[in-house]
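Two proteins, back to back. First:
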Amino acid sequence: MQERQVRNPIGRRRGIGAEFTVSRRALLAGLAAPLCGSAETPAEQALALRKAAAGDGEKAVLDLLEGRARDSLAAIRRSRTRADADRYRADLLRGKLRESLGLGRLPGPLRVRPRQVGILTRAGYRIEKLTYETLPDVEVPAHVYAPEQSQGRGPAILFYCGHWWEDSKTKPDFQAFCINMARAGFVVMTFDPFGQGERGVSNRDHRRTEMLLTGVSQQGIAEYETRCALAYLAWRRDVDPRRIGFTGASGGGYNTWITAALDDRIAVAVPVVGTSEFYEQISVCRPLDWYNANEHCHFVPNLIRYANNHEFVAMIAPRPLMIIAASQDQSFPVEGVRQVFKYGEEIYAGSRDGEKVSYYEDSTTGHGYQQKKREAAYGWFLKWLMNRGDGAPFPEPPTETEPWDSPELRCFPPGENKPAGPGIAAMAAKLAGATRTPKAKPRLAEVLGVADSGSAAPVRLEDRPVQRVVFRAQDGLSIPAFALQAGGERKGFLLALDDNGKEDLAAEPLVEEARRAGWAVAGVDVRGIGELSTSKPGWVFAVSLLLGENFVWRQALDLVAASRQLPAAPLAVYARGHNAALAATYALAVMQGVRWFVLRDGFLSFRQFLERPESMRASFALHTGERYRKAVYDREIPSEYFVFDVLRHFDLPQLLESLTCPGLIANPIDGDWKRMSEPEARRFVEPRTRLECSAAADAVLASFRALLTA
């Protein structure tokens, strides 16, 4: 972190004496000097300390999170016999997986109302072009590849495209699979997932985090749309609903695992490069920031508390399952896939169904659904859905595909790609509107996924103006902080947090005013902020969600731990910034002995994450070419702020209403990141809490002085 000049928005005012003012430079010097002696000046010492601490701090934060993922997966109860797997599947696994996906929240029964928009006749097969609706105003383009001559009800395959953004269902490798299966007598259906193909391109539609607030995960949307397609496929007169297979690559392979694990209508499953042993996948995606979390389909809430990939195998058994992997696959390490298959051999062999599980590893090509992988899938489907062959790879004949962007293959009119975003966002708003948050004070640990572990030993404070302090979080993380002496007789401790890090608190006029009034100050960097900031927010969000815990709640618990390690005294809390204010809101709900609080520049309600007309409208934009990989679609709310299914349990105003101490909320922001007017903000703020929405710095300071003297 380079030293920079901190602008004081309020300015030095008469009555705040120099003896009570600690500049940022002086603070840094005071923190660095006792710990680092090699640099020439205090500022250089502080810079060296900051750089060293930041690197170590980030590693500690990420290591602890990865360790919790490892330990959680290791603790999963694993079935070792088919009988046990049958009981476990029925009693627990499927129910928990449905809950994590949020399938019960979305509409049903499914009536997709298909509309045929064209037929392409080819040698040995035809392509029926369809559109149908999954949610209101959410239209899906699909292709059905069917044999040239129908012979009554025959076998069918549902093909789910992975994350191939522009070509999607028309990717030549996918066309080749569908063509050859149709020529062999199968009906094959494939469609564009949201954000892809004729519904894209939009990475943003693959991370519709607003649905999390209503208890629906991104994979839940994918699974819901899969069920819509499956309902249509089973309805067709040329399909035998007892002989439906499922396959797909990458995200499509993962969707194959999920659907086959939940739905016994899938008679045969062939997931292709779809996942690995989950800890290996988590570990390998850490340095990649899980591909910047551009899509959230693999981030299933709470999943790794009860299931690894092995449990998907147990849910599918004894139906025929072939796992197809690539020897070189950055996303899904092959050793982990081999482990999953080895477990599958044990489960299937235990009931004499050993021939129904198979593994194929492609050493010629990597991630994708290339020819060798397709040939392995052909042979497996032919054996188990047609009773043809022994399940070995079936050679692919010469196959002619069309350019992925051929106008003939389009289901929507030329140039009219239709985003799913508006319909999904509207459904999120509808579900939220139908949710009545209970009035009772919530049990935060149950909703946010981590229990508050209680007290800790106090830190030792020395008799000097500035001191570096290290608090201990409940999971053992070192929480860096500073302590400033009060300007006179100490009334208590002000626990302060800032989005930009604790150093930016040094010249904060409200902090200076509190010290002048007799409050000692403890400035804290919780995980994710300041010395503990991380360059891997996508990975942190993903792993936290998979664990069923919330990262901002972890930040709040860091703040709570710090409050318990200060010498016994009255407490106050000051938080500046949208992250700091949210963490402090959680912390205030469980802290004891708080005399007053200030929350500044933060959100007031989870519902603001849905009520953001300008940003939401911008998020519906579609892109072409490589631009979609880097485009900023809107000012998104950070993913870690979203809590799964939170609106059925609490909202932020409830937490503040439960407090018995006075407080000030200054310059709150709306979902479009704009400062709210007082009438807008007062909808969320009870009358006894002071509210200051003025842009004038003097007005904020005046409101704070009134709070101090109340």
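And the second protein:
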Amino acid sequence: MKDDKLYIQMFSIHGLIRSHNLEMGRDADTGGQIKYVLEEGMELSKQPEVARVDLFTRWIGDKTVSSDYSVPVEDVTEKFRIVRIPCGGGKYLRKELLWRHLDEYIDKSIQFIKRGGRLPDIVHGHYADAGYVAMWLSRLFGVPFIFTGHSLGRSKKAKLLADGMPEEQIRRRYMIDQRIDAEENVLSSADMIITSTNQEIEQQYEEYENCRSPEYRVIPPGIDLEKFYPYYHDMFTEKEPDETHLHAHASILLELERFFKFKDKPLILALCRPDKRKNLSGLIEAYGTDRELQTMANLAIYAGIRKDITQMEDNEQNVLTDMLLLMDKYDLYGKMAIPKKHDFELEVPELYRIAAASKGVFVNAALTEPFGLTLLEAAATGLPLVATDDGGPRDILANCKNGKLVTPTDTRAIAAAIKTIISDSDQWEAYSKNGILNVREHYAWKAHARHYLKEIREVIKQNTPAEPDIDKTPPAIGRRLAKLNHFLITDIDNTLIGDDNSRLPELADFLRENRNRLGFGIATGRTIDSAMEILSEHDLPEPDVMITSVGAEIYYGAARYADQGWQAHLNSHWNREKIRRLLESFDFLEYQEEETQRPFKISYNMAPEKDRLTLIHDLLHKNRCRYTMVYSHEQFLDILPHRASKGKAIRYLSYKWNIPVSQIIVAGDSGNDAEMLRGDLAGVVVGNYSCELEPFRGSRKIYFAEATCAGGILEGLDHYKIRQKIAGATS
């Protein structure tokens, strides 16, 4: 019986994710999104209607980072796990370098999900890379797909261009075109987009061609109110003091005292990554050019974690260098602090409370801010806000009424807003109280989880047919492949279909009648369109899997989803144009018409003659080409990537979908099929086979049928007792 409680899979692939001591600000990939997904997953798992939440991220085995990130499955609570899937080796990589490895991530996620024994009720991708992964898992397993962008490629590209970065550099550095293409595809596929603010929908998603495709829901994130409690709680608590919190509080004070000449002034606090978009230089300019503000308050900027600025990436290095130069320019020594590190779990909440107790202000002057979790954290402790008039801060201040919005490029306005709040004690108290009370009303994780579950229940309901009919509504391929007992994969020409089609209707009826237990696939030299055309002409069932172009392509189901992982697998060391150029020197090769050519297949006509294949091999080897060569019917020559062939494609499917090779029967008639008949697969060679397969006769794993074409396939199924096993399972 199906569990009515929900199984939710969340995906957040880049950065560093663990359940404790988050390394916030370590780099550009370990920012607010990491905290968001962890706390969202934790709160969702607490809800009684949820069976399990799995947060999928990347497995990292790298000595430069903690060994925590190499634990394959981290059990956070009884109902919440962090699942780490490997891709692209073990080295820690920035998110832009992960794009080429995402198809590998998909394949290994499929294997993990199948081993788990239960498919998710919903998949939720966070950011474009995880959106791409979740989109494909949704398609393959037939489950609803939710997406949260956090930030979007088109907006980022526009900002970088406005900052003067050349477009070609943006493409190379940020893989921006690939990201935007992925986001367009995600928008066309997602059942729902969850945003934190209305501004994301109206200004960011509106830039996309497919922005009208999905439903949108604004569900703001929450914060941990037990951690970010008001600054005055410690004054009145009757509990024994917590030594860890006291130590964190003392550590922050000692660190700040190293910088400040007059430590008792109100504290202007900023906390963010060292990113140019955060406009930290603008905040320092505002403070440095206003002598009155310097007299009134100290400035502390916590810009990530650093050891040596010269060892950091260019963007971070430039921001931190500019901060130090501005500090020197305006002679802010004794007034401004730029601490090198902070502990996110314990010290950051104390930092907010220290600033609030000093009657200070929290400032976020970012040029663009999709949401702004730090604003909520500061507000929850009672610290008033000065925030950029962009994106999330507009919604936050409208709900919380606890500060002022400013134009981030107007340094005078930033300074004036800070001074107004600090100098007016009544205003400060009103903002502090409003922040504390309104964060609890509008931004608690419990409220987020309730709203989230209400929306996804509706999405699941909309995606579940009232009366599923397996004949009319074929299940998604991933769900179907997980249930099949046996699989038949056959060549088309002269194997499935040929001169003798007398028993083809019998085979077609058998496949249709037993589709719940027997999967059907084809492995052909034809292109996908040609294969579908001939199958339709002979009224054959829709294949579950189509291996086409001699193993160069794999497609799934009626929708013909291309297997992106297989394409990425084949692309290694494949140089199509180089091979074609080299083979132009042989006049005995006739390049076939363009409709037969594919990105991973070069096709020729070639009459048989001694040494011709040897000459081709010698030339390609001499020029260090890596390839697979298939010669069939003494006429057709196909050059494929070295990883491609029908047999390799079938073994890839077995590995990817966890289908034991003992459950797969393959059928063929020519040298085109030779590679898939080797090894552990149970093979059937039909009676009208080509002489190229004669060397296989006598193999204990290959049955040579007497009957031809479809009749030979049926004979082979009987030889392996497949029809008998299926009949037994049915009875």
